[in-house]
């Protein structure tokens, strides 16, 4: 039997070994931080939540929602705090008023103008949506995609919420909705017409314009010598279009990896912000023939992709899609959504100034600050990191599905400690 001191030493040693093990596993996910790309991920942090609130209001009769109803929806938005406090922070976006002894919320006139502008852009972009959807289906081996899976990416691809009603019925020569499984969850969109002119990737199109062989772009500093060497070795292999049938390729081969990287590059090129959740990409593993350890593959190519765990959500960005923290090419929908973000900031700025002045007034009444000192003090704008705790403002599914098991093998940790204590 081990005495208490010996057990403490063994447990301490075990914890150090486990920490080393976890850090070693964490290194599989780590990538040197890029401040510009991290800033790009930060920019639409609160925009996502306000966009969801906007959609909730638009789905309600007369585009008006009670704050009590909005409070109940906060759980689905994965938000904490009071809904009333949240919407009051954005007076340029949301108008709060009382009716029948109850607080209600609606969109401001400025917001409604942007909503109308967004709808106009969507109508003008219908051809783009059709081509984008067709290209996605052309990269799938059987040219069919589950509707539920596609819905996870529809906003990232710019597809309207009602694309099944708005787009599919108008283009029955291109698509059809099928349900071979007979269940609601098995409904799929199938491509029934192959368009050869669409089966050209962005890399191939660029090479045609430049009159050279298709090749990837490495967006790393010249000081990353080893990464550049590995990139040149990888890029020396012949380019394989993501629109070709991968049936003849051997899984795990260099050729198969080359096509997979090309497919991921093409998919991210089709998204509005040239980025996607790695977990959601993993949902298309079977359709796109992606490897089980997708994260490892992405980290092998730091010159092409940037992997971030901002807000505890693993995201991959296409490096060449950005110049600093700004998109190289902005989709018309992104331009409208940027205006929404600017309107948010305008309202938040006004809210913060009012909040600051109220605090000064309270302090003056309590005699905490003198009038003379108040006149000389500069007015500092408050941060948008206000009283409300965001919690996890992104898709709650990101945490529910055990995404962190990739990093923290809890069962292994518990088993190691139990064995040592029991011994």
Q: How many discrete structural domains? A: 4
What is the H/E string?
Answer: HHHEHHEEHHEHHEEHHHEHHHEEEEHHHH
Helix content: 40-55%
Count of distinct strands:
11
Radius of gyration computed on alpha carbons: 26 Å
With strands numbered from the N-terminus, the spatial order across the biggest sheet is: 1-3-2
Quote the distance from N terminus to C terminus. Answer: 8 Å
Largest sheet: 3 strands, antiparallel
GO molecular function, one term: RNA binding
Organism: Ambrosia artemisiifolia (Common ragweed)
InterPro entries: PORR_domain, PORR_fam
Domain PORR: 32-348
What does this structure look like?
The protein folds into four domains: 4-31 and 398-422, no CATH class; 46-108 and 333-376, Arc Repressor Mutant, subunit A (Orthogonal Bundle); 125-198, Arc Repressor Mutant, subunit A; 201-329, no CATH class. Helices cover 50% and strands 10% of the residues. The protein contains 19 helices and eleven strands. The strands form four sheets. The protein has a three-stranded antiparallel sheet with strand order 1-3-2. Strands 4-6-5 form a three-stranded antiparallel sheet. A three-stranded antiparallel sheet has the order 7-9-8. Helix 1 runs antiparallel to helix 19 (410-422) and helix 6 (109-124) runs antiparallel to helix 16. The model is unreliable at 14-28 and 378-423 (pLDDT under 50).
List keywords for this structure.
423 residues; mainly alpha; Arc Repressor Mutant, subunit A; 4 domains; three-stranded antiparallel beta sheet; 11 strands; 50% helix; globular; disordered C terminus
